[in-house]
């Protein structure tokens, strides 16, 4: 296992895609921070404090799509170059090969997350008004949930990449799955943020003066089973977790973190079963 990990990390730190992703995440965080700092100094003149997580959560969306592309590309290269087959020929078990690849992908994701976090906070700290009030509010769960998203996405994309030998097919499938989960999360988040009541106004013939105004139930507000379904989608899908991060909503972060762990475990188990039976040519 140690030899597999050494080889995997050596390949990771030779990978140009990985360094491009690192630079890209750092530049994106720096750009967002610079925009906020410029607004703070020249438009608000120091009278407005940004939420320290504004730039952080937008960067998570970028990282959310980098993970599937990077995992599928790097593992696809090992399929194409015959590296995985050679490891089996050298006597390494498929289980150890799979876990070594998963650990390398997890490490890559966590490094990208760490770089984004450090650069983002370096720029955002001076204009945030301090961090204490956010930690009092319980927003340390933001970082836990961010790491959970990286774990679940890395496990899912490792499964796809290990069982699909075609690199481009693996990239397309992984990105499509990420996009699908994001769309479902957006749909659920949009429904859950619908107001329970809406204001209805009756106007006069000129359409300028309000004659009466009253509230009535919003027909688009999800109730009963549908509300539970949309809540489950937000809690279960990594794409749904992004909307919790963007909204600063941490009350259900512990449930979402558990579901991320479940996704990682199930996808890893499924990937192992398929990979052990796969005929590597």
Question: How would you describe the overall organization of this protein?
Answer:
With 281 residues, this protein is mainly alpha-helical. The protein contains 11 helices and 2 strands. The protein has a two-stranded antiparallel sheet. Strand 1 (197-203) and strand 2 (210-217) form a beta hairpin. The two termini are 23 Å apart. The model is unreliable at 132-138 (pLDDT under 50).
Tally of contiguous helical segments: 11
What percentage of the residues does DSSP assign to strands (E)?
A: 5-15%
Taking all residues together, what is the mean pLDDT? Answer: 83
Secondary-structure class: mainly alpha
Indicate the overall shape: globular
Question: Strand count, sense and closure of the main sheet?
Answer: 2 strands, antiparallel
Order of helices and strands: HHHHHHHHEEHHH
Helix fraction, binned, reads: over 70%
- The rounded distance between the terminal residues' Cα atoms is 23 Å
Radius of gyration using CA atoms only: 23 Å
Show unreliable segments.
132-138
**Sheet with the most strands: spatial strand order:** 1-2
Number of β-strand runs: 2
Give a short overview:
The protein is mostly helical.
